[in-house]
Structure formats: C-alpha cells, structure tokens
C-alpha cells in the first residue's frame, strides 16, 4: 500500500509530510513553485506561524494573499506590492479628477438651461421697477451633484475576485 | 560605546560596524524591526537587502515595513486587501464617469436638436412669409429657394 504523496512544502523542506501537515491543503505537490516563492520571501516557519494563528476557514485566503505578495516582491524586489498600490492610487486620483471636471460640466450645462425669465415689455410699461426685486430673479436651481469621493466598505469576499495587477 | 541598532537589540546580538540592518533600523524605533521580523524573519530580510544595491535598500525596508504592518492589521489579506479596495474604487469611479459623460452627451444632443428645430422653424416662417408675397405668381414663377 502506497503512502500519499508529500505536499509541495514537505518536498521542498525534505521532510515527512504528516497527516495533519498545516501546509498540505494549500500547497499541493503538483504546484511546487507556489510554496517555493512563499518560502523564499516569508520563510516556512513564518508562514506556518501565520496559518496557525488563523481559523481554518481563513487559511486558504491567507495563503493566496501571501502568494500574491511574494510574487509581487519577486517581480519588484524594491517596492513589491507597494508599487502596485502606488500605481492604483494614482489611477484613482486621475479618475476622480476627470469625474469632478465632468460633474462641473454638467452643472454648467444645467445652469445654462435654466428657464430664462422673459424680460417684461419695457417701453409701454409704467416706471414701476419693483418686479426686479421678485425672488424668481435670484432663484438658481440647486442641482445635486454626486459625491466625487467614492465610499467603499471592506469586503473580504471580494479580495480575490479581481484580476491582480501583473 | 556604540549603541546597537534596533535589529541587533531585538536579536540580542552584538551590532557590528558593518551591520546590514543598522542604517535602516535605528535604535529609537524598535517597532519597525519587530514588525518586519514577525512577518519576514531576520535572515530573509538580510538576504533581500544583500541582493540589492545600497541606494535601494532604504526604499525596500520602507516597503517591507508597510507590507508587514498591513499583514499585522489584516492577517488574512495583508496589503492585498488594500489593492482589492483600490480596484473597487477604480471600478466605481469609471462607472460614475461613464454615466456622467453619457449625461453630458444627452444634454449636448438635446441642445443641438432644439437649435436645429428653432432654426428650421424660423426658416419655415420666413418661407411662409415670402411665399405669401409671391402667392399671386403661378407655381412656375415661384423662386426656388433650394430647400428640399
């Protein structure tokens, strides 16, 4: 009777893969690169400690994020994930600026389209100018502009639902 | 007597004059090395720094510290959680921008349609008036205004 194949971690670490190996569920033997890169950046004992501190149902997500960070660090040994964060923050700023400009444009258009109060017939009317003090001459319609600062709520379920930056 | 850097203090060892950590882990900020050590480990950090030119090491340590702090605060997602939120913000902003631009296009279209209509109305009035002027003439004598 043959034993089960050791997981990628135990293969790399050259040790016996115990039945309750903490790495086995997340580092299958058919993907050795996954553990190799995490081990290179974080170290096996640190990864083991991090996983042990988490409930079981959160460990898969934790491993995925560690793999992502390790890959980012390998691609960019200086900035790692921070490089991606910086790039994305710039994109957000740029989009918010474009949105503010577009919203200002809408406001201008709306103000231009305000119904023009027709000027009363001037010549034959009596000299009474009290109509100029009528409130409707000073009534600028307020248009509600959407908030340019997006609000978001932390949603762990969506963490791995997007394509990661490469 | 030289003061040990925060790393060597944490590791309880002598701080040599060529300590690779000392430029980036001053003794007055022990938390900085503690965070990084907790996530990456001292030997991994030392190896990473050794593989980089000296002028890039300070930026590297700053980034490692940031990522370590993210991981400490969010042990599941780390700084990947930040990236995910940023993607969400980008998506929201792009959607809002597209909607706003569509609104602008609608305004512009309705304005130009209204102007066209007003111009056409004016022309029709003009044609009608001038047509009346020549109404006594037969159809063959009427001037063609060239409008189809």
UniProtKB/TrEMBL annotation, chain A:
Cited InterPro entries: LOB
LOB domain: residues covered: 5-106
Similarity comment: family membership: Belongs to the LOB domain-containing protein family.
Name of the featured protein: LOB domain-containing protein
Organism: Rubroshorea leprosula
UniProtKB/TrEMBL annotation, chain B:
Pfam families: LOB (PF03195)
Stretches assigned to the LOB domain: 3-104
InterPro entries per the UniProt record, alphabetical: LOB (IPR004883)
Domain of life, per lineage: Eukaryota
Family: Belongs to the LOB domain-containing protein family.
The protein's name in its UniProt record: LOB domain-containing protein
């Amino acid at each position: 009777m043959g034993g089960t194949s050791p997981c990628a971690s135990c293969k790399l670490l050259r040790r016996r893969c115990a039945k309750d190996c903490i790495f086995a569920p997340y580092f299958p033997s058919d993907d050795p690169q996954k553990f190799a890169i995490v081990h290179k950046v974080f170290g096996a004992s640190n990864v083991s400690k991090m996983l042990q501190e988490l409930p079981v149902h959160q460990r898969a997500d934790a491993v995925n994020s560690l793999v992502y960070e390790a890959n980012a660090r390998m691609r960019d040994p200086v900035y790692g994930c921070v490089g991606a964060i910086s790039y994305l923050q710039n994109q957000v700023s740029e989009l918010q600026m474009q949105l503010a400009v577009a919203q200002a444009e809408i406001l201008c258009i709306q103000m231009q389209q305000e119904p023009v109060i027709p000027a009363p017939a001037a010549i034959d009317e009596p000299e009474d100018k009290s109509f100029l003090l009528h409130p409707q001459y000073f009534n600028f319609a307020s248009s509600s502009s959407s908030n340019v600062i997006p609000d978001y709520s932390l949603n762990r379920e969506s963490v791995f639902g997007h394509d990661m930056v490469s | 007597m030289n003061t040990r850097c925060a790393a060597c203090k944490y590791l309880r060892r002598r701080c040599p004059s060529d300590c690779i950590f000392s430029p980036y882990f001053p003794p007055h900020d022990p938390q900085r090395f503690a965070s990084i050590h907790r996530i990456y480990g001292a030997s991994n950090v030392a190896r990473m720094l050794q593989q980089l030119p000296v002028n890039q090491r300070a930026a590297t340590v700053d980034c490692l510290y940031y990522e370590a702090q993210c991981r400490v605060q969010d042990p599941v997602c780390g700084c990947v959680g930040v990236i995910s939120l940023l993607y969400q913000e980008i998506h929201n902003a792009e959607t809002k921008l597209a909607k706003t631009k569509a609104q602008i296009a609608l305004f512009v279209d309705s304005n130009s349609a209204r102007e066209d209509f007003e111009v056409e109305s004016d022309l029709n009035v003009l044609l009608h008036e001038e047509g009346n002027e020549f109404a006594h003439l037969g159809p063959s004598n009427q001037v063609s205004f060239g409008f189809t």
